[in-house]
Amino acid sequence: MQLRDFETDDWAQVWPIVREVVRAADTFTYDPAMTAEQAYATWVQPPPGRTVVAHDGDAVLGTAHMNTNRPGPGSHVATASFMVAADARGQGVGGALVRDALDWARGLGYAGMQFNAVAASNTSAVELYERHGFTIVGTVPGAFEHPAQGRVGLHVMYAEL
Question: How many Å is the maximal CA-CA distance in the chain?
Answer without folding.
Answer: 42
